């Protein structure tokens, strides 16, 4: 059983490492200007205070490797390049297709530190992507606050990265 568990863990690590290597190769191609309209993986286009690193990573986990491109023609070019490079799974976001997302009013609820999108910095042209990925979650000061806010319909994340979805337990 230990060997099976080890093989399973190793396979998962190889898959993640393989995806990271493939994304790095695609990024090198994009940064060489060979791909028109290529911006790069979201994780390389944003910044945040280290204090919020776990919160940002938890909320953005499925999106941080997403490749940001300017528009649909650029998306098609990048996906074709990814296919030729044998990148199995690629998430891409065309900037022109992301609508403006209204920034919610500041929550004046005890325990709320900020919306996650407020703690993430990016160029103005990428703001819509940041709001799309992070805008529906709030950073809170404790698991108790996260639980209470989730019960009220909010998506909440602690500084430690524990996410509480509306009306469900943390995962």
Throw out a few tags for this protein.
16% strand; single chain; 42% helix; 9 strands; 171 residues; alpha/beta
Would you mind describing this structure in some detail?
- The chain has 171 residues and is α/β, with parallel strands linked by helices.
- Helices cover 42% and strands 16% of the residues.
- The chain contains six helices and nine strands, in the order αββαβαββαβαβαββ.
- The strands form three sheets. Strands 5-7-8-9 form a four-stranded mixed β-sheet, with helices on both faces.
- The model is unreliable at 10-14 (pLDDT under 50).
Largest sheet: 4 strands, mixed
Specify Rg, calculated over alpha carbons.
18 Å
Distance between the termini: 26 Å
The geometry reads as: elongated
Strand order of the largest sheet: 5-7-8-9
Instruction: Specify the structural class.
Output: alpha/beta
Helix content: 40-55%
Care to count the β-strands? 9
> Which spans of ≥5 residues are poorly predicted at pLDDT below 50?
10-14
Which percent range describes the beta-strand content? 15-25%
Mean pLDDT score, rounded? 84
Number of helices: 6
Give helix and strand order, one letter per element, not per position.
HEEHEHEEHEHEHEE
